[in-house]
Amino acid sequence: MHEHYKKVGGYLEALKASSPGTTLDLVTDPTHKKFPPIFQRLCTCFEGLQKGWRVGCRRVICVDGCFLKTFLRGQLLCAVGRDGNDQMYPIAWAIVESENNLSWEWFLLHLQKCLELGDGNGVAIISDEHQSLSKHIFALWHKVYKGDELKILFWKIAKAYNMADFSDAFAELEKLNPAAATAFKDIRAALMQRLVLKRQEMQKATSKLCPKIQLKLEGEKTKAANCDVFPSTETLFNVNYYLDQLVVDLEAMTCTCRKWEMLGIPCCHAIACIYFLHREAEDYVDQWYTRDVYHQAYAGSIPPCEGERHWPRPEFHLDPPPMKIGPGRTG
After folding, report:
1. How far, rounded to the nearest angstrom, does the alpha carbon of residue 16 sit from its chain's CA centroid?
2. In sequence order, which residues have a C-beta less than 8 Å from that of residue 193 and are 6 or more positions away?
3. Bridge-partner residues for 76, per DSSP?
4. pTM, rounded to two decimals
5. Based on the domain organization, do 75 and 160 belong to the same domain?
6. Which residues of 228-239 are buried (b: 16+ CB within 10 A; e: fewer)?
7. Alpha-carbon distance 40 to 176, whole Å?
8. pLDDT tens, 2-14?
9. How many whole angstroms separate alpha carbon 232 and alpha carbon 216?
10. What is the pLDDT of residues 92-111, one digit of tens each?
C-alpha cells in the first residue's frame, strides 16, 4: 500500500510532461504534522477538456459524488457538462477524503479557475443529473403511491417547463390522491477515447444540427401542425394550441410555455410562427447545438501517458490515508 503511494509522484510527473496545460492538484492532510505527509485529495482536469467545454458546451455543469469501494474509502467527485448532441461531456474529477463542505468548495474553486467561470454569471450548476435525480425521487415516491395514473401525473409534474403547467398537473394529482401530492411536496423539498469517438461519430452527420437535437426538433415540427398563428407584428404572435393561447416573440426567442428558453430548441408554437414567415426552424436553434460548435468541443485531445515502467522516479514521500473500519467490523 505504501509502495503504491510512492508511485503517485511519478504518475503526476508523467501526466504533467504529456499535457503541460492539465490541472493537477495534490493536497496532503494539514492535521498530520509528521513526515511523510498523508494523502488527502487529488484533482484532475485535462487541458483538452477545459478548452472543449469553454468553446463548445452550454453553460451547464452537473456535479456529483460517489463512494470509492476500497479499504481506504474516500469519495470521487466529478463534474460533467452537456455537449451539442445532448450527451454527457466529462470535465474534471477529484479523489477526496469525504464528501463535505470543504472538499466540495476546494473542487468547485478548481472548476472556477479551470473553466474561467469568473463570478458564475450565466452558468447553471446542477447537483446530481436532473434525470437521475428525478428517477431517484420517483422510485422512492412510487413505492408507496402506485398505479399508472399516478405515474403519468408524476412525470407530467416533473417535466413541466412553466408554473402554469406545473400547477395544473399538481392540481390533478391532489384531486386524485391528496396524500401522494403531499408526499411529492415533501420529497421535492428534501431533496481520451471518448473525445476521439465523439468527433468521429459527428463527422458522419450531414445536418446543420447535431442528430439528437434534430430529432427533437422534428418532433416539435410535427406538433406545430396543430397550432393556429395570429401575427401582431413581424416578430410577435399569438398562437392557439388546442385550448391554450400563448405569446411567441421570435426576436427575443421566447414563448409563454418557456420550453424554448429552457432548452434552446424552438417549441412547436414558435415553429408554427417560423413557418408562417416561410423560414427554417433550424435557424432558430441555439448555437450550442450545431455541428460546428460540437466539433469545437471535441477538437482537443488527452495526450497518451507511458506505462508505469517509464515514469520518472522523483523523490516523493507520501503515505496513504488511514484505513477506515466500517461499523460492526473488528479489523
Report:
1. 27
2. none
3. 66, 95
4. 0.67
5. no
6. ebeeeeeeebbb
7. 52
8. 555 556 667 677 7
9. 28
10. 999 898 888 888 999 999 99
Q: Which helix (H) or strand (E) holds 66?
A: strand 60-67
Cell triple for 152: 403519468
Tell me: the pLDDT tens digits for 21-63? 888 888 888 888 888 888 888 898 888 899 999 999 999 999 9
Collapsing DSSP to helix, strand or coil, 43 comes out as: strand
Distance from C-alpha of 294 to C-alpha of 64, rounded to nearest angstrom: 24
Q: How many CB atoms lie within 10 A of CB 222?
A: 11
Rounded Cα gap, residues 318 and 4, in angstroms: 10
Please give the Cα distance from 109 to 115 (Å, whole number): 10
* Residues 300 and 48 sit within 8 Å (Cβ to Cβ): yes
Question: Residue 87 belongs to what domain range?
Answer: 2-127+303-310
3-class SS of residue 7: coil
Q: Please give the tally of structural domains in the chain.
A: 3
In the predicted model, is pLDDT for residue 191 greater than 50? Answer: no
Q: If we measure between CA atoms, which residue out of 187, 189, 185 comes closest to residue 171? A: 185
Q: Are residues 10 and 79 in the same domain?
A: yes
Residue with cell 510527473: 13
Q: Which position has the higher pLDDT, 323 or 97?
A: 97
Distances, alpha carbon 181 to alpha carbons 45, 163, 172, in Å: 42, 16, 9
* C-alpha to C-alpha distance for 248 and 276, rounded to whole angstroms: 12
Q: Based on the domain organization, do 87 and 119 belong to the same domain?
A: yes
Calculate the CA dihedral of residues 56, 58, 63, 68 and round it to 10 degrees. -30
Question: For residue 263, what is its C-alpha cell?
Answer: 432548452
Q: Establish if 275 belongs to a structural domain.
A: yes
Reduced to 3 states, what is the DSSP secondary structure of residue 272?
helix
126 strand-pairing partners: 62
**Beta-carbon neighbour count of residue 118 at 10 Å?**
9
